[in-house]
Amino acid sequence: MSSLVVNTNLDAINAYNNLNATNLSLSKTIAQLSSGLAIQTAADNPAGYQIAQNFTYEINGAQQAVSNVQNGVSLVQTADGALNQIASILQTMDQLAAANSSGGTTDPASVAANQQEFVDLQNEIQQIATTTTFGTQNLLNGSFSNEVVQVGAFATAADQITFGISAATIGALGIATGTSSIGTVSAALSALASVQAAISTVASMAAGVGAFQNELQGIAANLTVMNQNLTAAKSQLVDVNFAQATTQFSTEQILMQSGTAMLSQAQQQPALVLKLLT
To answer: What pLDDT sits at residue 271?
Structure first.
């Protein structure tokens, strides 16, 4: 049994220490419940805080990568639409060249009309190839080459893909105005071969653009699932479990009340000495 002393009240000191510890724990629980976070600062859980920060930049990077990929899909859809239009024009040019290749069944007026339409279509293809842009980037004039799309959160080669689109100008397709004409039978026969080669070239370009679009859409789907899983993992680490925290809060409130009462009782113990003096 402890001696009855006045100068040092060990019971009061012990009760105070317990009450102070309970108050600190209660303050932490209140902060968790009010913020919804189990880890608000590095002091709450140093290792967990570091892991959470790593999760955060990976989640942010994945979200931005999804946006990058979606922009990439929009870009290739723009290019694909223009290539489809060029392909349609080339099919018309093929018909005109075939018509003028048959000199015995085409009168001079028709030949001249077909030639004029052929030139107009050449100009139309050139206009499409030189004005099809995404933002400020021209897509079909040959300048869109080895362009990088960031499709991941990290600065690695695996998180980047490179893509380019060949030129679809009349010069690149071999149907330039100065070299491709259907004004005569021989010229029309030559132009017929050139236009058909251009049709194959544009079809190949469109196929490449379509394949790249499918690749981007697959990457976007994977990034979305990955981001969902990363977010769930971070939530398990940093978000507070409200059922557990509210139970802890109730316990700490009871301990605060009982601790306060016990501290009050312990502070009154030295007063018992007065009874020994009466």
So the answer is: 77
In 80-171, beta strands by DSSP E: 133-134, 137-138, 147-150, 160-163
The CA distance from 252 to 22, in Å, is 6
More confident residue, 24 or 165: 165
- Read off φ and ψ for residue 183, nearest 5 degrees: -70, -20
* CA separation for the pair 216, 220 (Å, rounded): 6
Q: Model pTM greater than 0.85? A: no
In angstroms, rounded to a whole number, what is the distance separating the alpha carbons of residues 169 and 132? 11
Give the span between the Cα atoms of 164 and 142, in whole angstroms: 9
Smallest CA-to-CA distance from 135 within 56, 185, 182, 74 is with: 74
C-alpha 234/C-alpha 210 separation (Å) is: 36
Specify the CATH architecture of the domain 61-237. Up-down Bundle (1.20)
Summarize pLDDT for 247-269 with one digit per residue, the tens: 888 998 898 899 899 888 888 87
Q: In the chain, what are the domain boundaries? A: 1-13+24-33+243-272, 61-237
3-state secondary structure of 174: coil
Neighbouring CB atoms inside 10 A of 235's CB total: 11
d(CA 265, CA 12): 8
Structure tokens at 272: 């018992």
Cβ-defined contacts of 217-223 (< 8 Å, 24+)? 217/69, 217/73, 219/69, 219/151, 219/161, 220/66, 220/69, 220/70, 220/73, 223/62, 223/65, 223/66, 223/69, 223/151, 223/152
27 vs 6: CA distance, rounded Å: 33
Q: Does residue 7 have a pLDDT over 60?
A: yes
Q: 65 in helix, strand or coil?
A: helix
